[in-house]
Specification:
Blueprint: E1 15-16, E2 24-32, E3 35-42, H1 48-69, H2 77-84, H3 91-106, H4 116-122, H5 134-141, E4 149-155, E5 161-167, H6 180-194, E6 199-204, E7 207-211, E8 220-225, E9 238-244, E10 247-253, E11 258-261, E12 264-267, E13 282-289, H7 292-305, H8 307-315, E14 321-328, E15 331-336, E16 342-344
Antiparallel strand pairs: 1-2, 2-3, 3-6, 4-5, 6-7, 7-10, 8-9, 9-16, 10-13, 11-12, 13-14, 14-15
Length: 345
Amino acid sequence: MSRNNLMILVLTVFAAASCTQKNRYYTIDGTTQGTTFHIVFQPTVSSDSSFTAVRDTVNSILQRIDFSVSGYNKESVLTAFNEDGNPDIDKIFLDNFLASRRMSEESGGMFDASAAPLFDLWGFGFKTGTEVTQAMIDSVLQFVGMAHFRVDSLKTKEGQDSIVILRDDPRCKLNFNAIAQGYTTDLIAAKFSGMGMENFLVEVGGEVYAEGVNPKGRLWNVGIDRPVDGNNSPGADIQAVVHISGKGLVTSGDYRKFYIKDGKKISHSINPKTGYPVDHNLLSATVVAENATVADGYATYLMVLGFDKAKEVVESNPAIEALLIFSDGDSLKVWMSEGMDAISE
């Protein structure tokens, strides 16, 4: 988003675990990165000035993210990188690139931030899609793959080291949409911890990190929406409730981001190997991991795989837990890994 479109709507709520001033929890709600955010926190000192300091900190982080890795902000580092070449890379951009590269390696290339040209082609990226043909896909696939990019350093005129990301062809592009919101969540959470806060929940676009306990003194409860077409109101129709603390949680699904063409559903989950949107029975994947960045990457990866392969990945990876919702004929079914702390409705 541009600076003018970065709107932060703040709502203050004193939801208390007890009546004492020090136990007050506050909330901040607003919009960012084309989505909403919801933050609940217990500051070290409950006061209007504490709330204002936290609100301003959140706004600053969101603006920094927007001007670094938003493909919709024409003034962002990402836009300059995709259109002009190699601008100065800030830490946020580099963090997202390195996290995406690690996820690409762990997924065997099934998670791929360099699939930006494919998302643009199908109308899910930063450009409007057109009629897609095999020839068009073939022409784009040759520029997809993280191997096209490498991190390097250059000396500035002042003699300082400057980090750059080089690519072997200017038609290679990046899109961090599948990991940036998880990263944003973690960045805010890390700032809260650095401010001494022990109890908070940060949610940006459905990507969650929770620490400590909620106002009732219990683990944080996160509702998982029933993944059916038309369920466009988060929390209105819940399939399961997951309990977390000290973890990140992200749900990816195809029941909101899709369009219908010639009677066929076109999913926003695109296989970077084939260049085509996926077509399988996995409707949503909820991942719990050490942080929201990892959970975000794996949720996207699992949605590309489909239920059977996704289940195999989860069972073989002790670093993540997952709740998978899939279709079985006309029915919805839920599969949870052994360590998932959840209740299915």
